[in-house]
Amino acid sequence: MTHPIHELALTSVYNLFRRARLLRHQLFRLRAIGVRVIVQRGDEFLLVRHRGGATPWGLPGGAVDHGEAPAEAARREAREESGCPVTITGLHGVFHYLSHGLSDYVIVFTAVADGPPAPPVADIEICDAQFFHPDRLPDGIDPGSIRRIAEVRRGERNLYQAW
After folding, report:
1. Residue range 87-107, pLDDT digits in tens
2. Is the separation of the CB atoms in 108 and 60 below 8 Å?
3. Phi, psi of 81 (to 5 degrees)
4. Which of 26-30, 71-75, 79-83 has the lowest mean pLDDT?
5. CA triplet 158, 75, 111: central angle to 5 degrees?
6. Closest residue by Cα to residue 16 from 48, 51, 62, 49
7. 23 membership: H or E segment, kind and range
8. Tens digit of each residue's pLDDT (9 = 90 or more) over 3-53
9. E runs forming strands in 3-103
10. So what's the pLDDT on residue 30?
11. How far is CA 145 from CA 25, 30, 74, 90, 152, in A?
């Protein structure tokens, strides 16, 4: 377990980084391609909790690195953010995020868990990772993640729409 002052410092640095990244994207009109992963274990879905923001819980994911295939980025991000190894099972959809001056695209994959979550310790970005039943999702989950989980439960896929 980490010290509370250390946790507070990590959270403060993370929130500063988030604000700086948003400002950079707004000023330079950068377009990002990211991935998210809808990881299932039976009837439960994997969510990670970021250190800050109004809705810290969401699907694991992040940026696609230069030269990296999106499915590999999805597998890597799920492992980095949750500690949970996954097998990608399909493409859920491609979503555009046009808000706060951003114009990003998010490729969402479905996956199954190959092990339990083991969230990173003393990480600057992620502070928890857990599986949740869709009827018992935590408070503070981002609306886009809620919509993606509902779509999977309804059997929808191959979507293209707003995040």
Report:
1. 999 999 999 987 766 678 999
2. no
3. -85, -30
4. 26-30
5. 50
6. 51
7. helix 4-28
8. 777 677 777 777 777 777 667 656 655 567 999 999 999 999 999 999 988
9. 33-41, 44-50, 57-58, 61-63, 86-97
10. 59
11. 22, 23, 15, 17, 11
The predicted structure's pLDDT at residue 26: 60
CA separation for the pair 83, 79 (Å, rounded):
5
pTM: 0.81
Nearest-5° Cα angle at 132, 129 to 138: 80
Query: Residues in the chain, how many?
Result: 163
CA distances in angstroms from 133 to 46, 90, 117, listed in the order given? 9, 21, 15
> Domain 4-162, what fold?
Nucleoside Triphosphate Pyrophosphohydrolase (3.90.79)
> Which token pair is 143?
């609306």
Q: From CA 121, how far away is CA 110, in angstroms rounded?
A: 26
Give the residue carrying structure tokens 């490729």: 107
